[in-house]
Amino acid sequence: MPVIVASDLDRTLIYSAAALALTMPDARAPRLLCVEVHESRPLSYLTETAAQLLTELGDEALFVPTTTRTRKQYQRINLPGPPPTYAICANGGHLLVDGVSDPDWHARVQARLADECAPLAEVQDHLLRTADPVWVRKHRTAEDLFAYLVVERELLREEWVKELGEWAENRGWTVSLQGRKIYAVPKPLTKSTAMREVARRSGADLTLAAGDSLLDADLLLAADLGWRPGHGELAEASWTAPGVRALPERGVLAGERILREFLRTVRSR
């Protein structure tokens, strides 16, 4: 029976230059491997050690990249190891099978959102009307499923984020602040639902997960065992749960530690 390893990517396994948290002396910094290039510029990294660990993990478990990124954004990433059979994109809105979105899964997701949540257009309109242009840099929708803003974090009013969360809660949506992005996501659009579908299809009897943000909490709760790094929304909220281990490492070294934990658990079965 396979083991599923469903892991968030950004700030969990891969890191932008700003998120690396290389606090050690330069001469002791780990060697890095670039795994994403965007507009001809390197964008995301993991350590070379993490790259080797991920390659080994892909040979011993069913590794499922699990991300809020759109399909296009995900496909920029070139992870080491065997190509994943499954990948979860758009926070569960798309289930990729051998790199191609499963149309039946996507249709099921869309039907559920239509039944249970306020429409995306209403949420997008609210964001456009209430967000202050002083701190908003970009308005975006993702895969016609959810919306997000790119903001200047130091100018952002925390009260506005709280008010947005309360407004969204009453309409079946949730709000998450991750770095410079504020996400508004329908509550039924979850990584955990897609992970359970992969478990059903593969017949897996053990699920492992990792993530750093509030959008990963449902994934960690749904897995048999989970890990979160020492940074991110979950760490800032001191969030934990039975079966979820809070790691002390921050930045790119947290990604390396998470992969070690995955491998150790898979090999100890």
From TrEMBL:
GO molecular function: hydrolase activity
Keywords from the UniProt entry: Hydrolase
Gene3D superfamilies: HAD superfamily/HAD-like
InterPro entries: HAD-like_sf, HAD_sf, TPP-like
Domain of life where this protein originates: Bacteria
Protein name per Swiss-Prot or TrEMBL: HAD family hydrolase
Species in which this protein is naturally found: Streptomyces lusitanus
Species lineage: Bacteria, Bacillati, Actinomycetota, Actinomycetes, Kitasatosporales
